[in-house]
Amino acid sequence: MKYEGPSAVPDKRALRRELLAARRELGPAERTGSGAALAAHALLLPELAAARTVAAYVSVGTEPGTAELLETLRLRGTRVLLPVLLPDDDLDWGAYTGPGSLAVVRHGGRMELAEPAGPRLGPDAVTEADVVLLPGLAVDGRGMRLGRGGGSYDRVLARLERAGARPALVVLLYGTEVVARVPAEEHDRPVHAVVTPSGVRRFTHP
Question: Residue 33: is its pLDDT beyond 50?
Answer without folding.
Answer: yes
